[in-house]
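ok trying again, last paste got cut off:
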Amino acid sequence: MFTISRFSQLCKMSARMLRHYDKEELLKPVHIDATNGYRYYEKSQLETALLIKKLKEYRFSLPEIRTILQTSDRKLFIGFINSKINELTNEMNRYRQIITEMQEMVDKKEDFSQGERRSYDILLGIRNEISVVSQRLQMNIADMDRHIDSFYDKAEESNIQFLGVPSAIFFDEEFTPDHSDIELMIPIIHRNDEKISREWQIKKLPQKIIATTLHIGSYDYIGYAHIALEEWAESNGYCLDGPPYETYLKGSECDCHVEEYVTQISFPVIKKSNAIIP
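nice, full thing came through this time. structure:
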């Protein structure tokens, strides 16, 4: 058997890292001396240590590595590898996109401090009463597309006819991407005979005065559209009459560049003179 110091030399891992892997139940010593607490490893564990190093290079998390080490199923292992290949490919494509954007900024000699602030046309109109199928979720915002796809599938199973594209209301007071409080909505033709899933509901949105604008491009800069609507409402004597919502007219489902995304932002508003003061 090897001491932890000698084993760390053999596998080129620090003793501190080996202790951490022991705590994470990835690579436990075969023996710990009850008298002095010394840890000992067998030569057969060198293969496991080197596999852990390689999987870390492949960007697997420690929980993922633990699952891989605990399975002898070759198909499952290949599935993990293919999934990571897809993940890294998407990440690589994103980095390529970032590099391209940065290079374009340099080539165009753009002022980096100016950001993406742009002008927005604000329209005021009436949203008639409309039925929507809705679901309020606590979700990772990165999973929104997956939830919307599932939303469509479940609604179609109930033979619900759609009238438009999905919208989202964000209820969080601050941006919490890992655990966002979001209501998804899709306008429908309501026939009163749909079988309602316990996971979602059908409700009617009342007639409202709505101030709207279109944001074209990445969601990263959609805050400017919200600011434009807030400034317009303040300048024209309006205040909010319900939560704002975003409607995704063109997004990732179109398999297009983010600069081609089209999102409508809607503010239900009311004249301040007509607002009920609590």
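cool. The mean pLDDT is 87. Residues 74-107 form the longest helix (34 residues).
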